[in-house]
Amino acid sequence: MRDYLWADAYRMPRYLPLWTGFAIALALYLGATYLISGPAFTPETYASVLAVFGSLLPLVAGLSLIGFVYSHDVRAGAMKVAIGRGVSRRGVVGVKTVELLTLTVLGLGLLFVLCAAWDAVLGLDPGPAPLAGLLGVTLAATLQLLIYGLIAGCVAFARQETTASTTVFALLASGVFEVILGLVLSQDAVVDAVGDLSRFLPRNLTSELGHAWATGDPGSFLGFTLVAGYLLLPVLLTRYLFDRTELDF
Q1: Could you state, in order of their start, the residue ranges of all structural domains in the chain?
Q2: What is the sign of the dihedral through the CA atoms of 70, 71, 77 and 78?
Q3: What is the largest CA-CA distance in the chain?
């Protein structure tokens, strides 16, 4: 399993599409903040930029990352080669989970540092806590990308093809699925029967938790527990489905 992980780590710097999404996200932020900089700058315009940036970040950065972690391996048959060399199926799932977690945290962490440095270069002063808004958006996007990526990975492992997993990730990261589900959950009949469940959708929970962490607030225990469940359940389901997936060697 260690060799499998090191093999993927070795090709990370050489797989240019992996970094394309992060570069596009950075370019979007640099361009948007440059346009609002100057005498007309206000904290409100900066908050609007952050809102749009935060909504796009999981999708823009995530598609290339998902392509590296899952799609490339499925197309190249690397998972099957690793299993043929003695790596257990659960070991393969573990390696891919570690890769997704590591790349997401490192990639978005570096993106946050570069965006914060750019704000300093432009002399932006969004308010008394200039980094809190950007940090909150980055933390929320990190949690969202991990949740949606793990769900997409579940599809990739179960079906052993890339189109379905990429499509699932795009629908989740773009917010399309949660908008539709939110409309259903906000119907009066549903609210009267079970209460307002739309606030427990991943995007809403992660946004609330990310911005709470950015200001030093640990957030609600219920929110933390639900986010942890959103992260853990796809991994367990992936292990279960992959154990029962027939592979063609």
Answers
A1: 2-243
A2: negative
A3: 63
CB 165 within 8 A of CB 66: yes
Q: What is the mean pLDDT of each run of 10 residues along the chain (249 residues)?
A: 66 74 93 84 84 92 87 74 80 89 93 90 67 89 95 89 88 90 83 81 91 84 92 94 75
pLDDT at 38: 76
A 10 A CB-CB count for 244 gives 8
Local structure of residue 198 (DSSP, 8 states)? G
141, 138, 143: which is closest to 115 by C-alpha? 138
Q: Which of 60, 23, 67, 21 is nearest to 166 (CA)?
A: 67
Q: What is the pLDDT of residue 8?
A: 66
Cβ-based burial of 237 (10 A; exposed 0-12, middle 13-18, buried ≥19): middle
The single-letter code of the amino acid at 1 is: M
Q: What six digits make up the tokens of 129?
A: 């806590």
Give the span between the Cα atoms of 227 and 61, in whole angstroms: 20
Is residue 126 within 8 Å of residue 96, measured between CB atoms?
A: no
132 exposure class (CB count in 10 Å sphere: 0-12, 13-18, 19+): middle
